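Predict structure. Input: FAD-dependent oxidoreductase, 461 residues.
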Amino acid sequence: MTVIGRQAVVIGAGIAGLSAAAAVSEFFETVHLLEQDKVQSEALPRPGVPQGQHPHVLMSGGFQALSSLLPGLGAELRAAGAIPLEIGRDLRWEVPGLGVFPKRDLGIFSFSLTRPLLEQVIARRVLALPNIISVNEISAVDIVLSADGARVARVEYQQSGHGTVSVPADLVIDATGRAGPIERCLQRHGKPLPPRSRIEVDTRYSTGIFALSSPQDFVASVTFPAAPESSRGGYLLQIGDNLWQALLTGRGEEQPPADHDTFLGFARALATPTIAATLEGAELVGGIRRFAFRESVWRHFGQSASGRLPAGLLPIGDSLCRFNPVYGQGMSAAAIEAALLKATLARHLGQDDPLPRVGKSFLAQAHDLIAIPWSSSTLTDLVYPQTIAERPADLDERLRERREALANAFTNAEAHRDFFRRQQMLFALDGFIAADVNRNTTAPHDSARVTARNDHLLGQY
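Output follows.
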């Protein structure tokens, strides 16, 4: 088998790290997957992922990217209990002033599921790959460069009972979410840190799991805030036969509550009534959990004063760009970046010393990929006067154009499909991984009727 290098090291085994390990496994003899948490046999939130107890969205683009890396993933997710959904039929999308999107068959598919379930299924597949070495409960990770600082040399970490462990590496991927290892490495070797774009949003949200006594005619429901007057929004996602995750979000003084009664009161104050009406009489399973998100950060690696990172050193996922989680873009962006990395490695396979070119190409394409969801989510954030960020001169014009596009999508079926192809990050699959995805991905549903709610024909992507 032709490979690019002997060893790759992926730091972090969340969605980004698992996806990256799958992506690079074909191009290196051995892939070391390092994680600070202990591997869990059940689909439970990990200590290192406190937001894992809250709803996560797997967009259609993210699902297709994962399926290109791990063929057959859709069937495994469904067998594990994930709920299939067709975006145009099963997602109830409520916009103040416009109403509810009409139900249409858009041919855009994904799943409603918890993050721990998704992580468990992906981890099972990735850890079964013959050249993956999984190492857990590690700490104090350091990336060491070559003597001339031009490329990575090894990764060092602490592990109980083993002291300091050193792993030589041709490729090191920082999937830790905060870019700590990669930025410490750059600082230690006197290299500049990347410029950053920041949006201070001060978003808060609260989540409860509810048991409903009756079926609904949707799999997920979204209520958007009546912005900028109010920041109150909500999500409701089916995660089991009668179990639903409800998330309420707000900013500034509109803080989602931490107890059942005020949670329902907050839901009743949303701009549209579906979530509150659905939760009336539902049984709260467990307690209400809260989470705070201060700022979105996009690290522009490859655009620092030195022009590029050392060869074989790459960020991915939140280490590259941490999106505001209320928009559900993070997991899908990470998966698409991993698919992009695989395509980039494949393009340079067989070349002499390809890793410098791999890094430059990947970071340039990842920058273009991130720009669209970043622009979309930050445009929404900038509606609120309390958001701290530089506002573009054409902000009002861009907001007007988006309102017009949204209104058009309500009345025009083709505009509806185009709107959700963009929202579901399917645009990112065009070109560099489209052929791989089309070959390896099938719809997450059977080709027959799934349920009384999902009685439309569901075929291939």
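The first strand starts at residue 5 and ends at 11.
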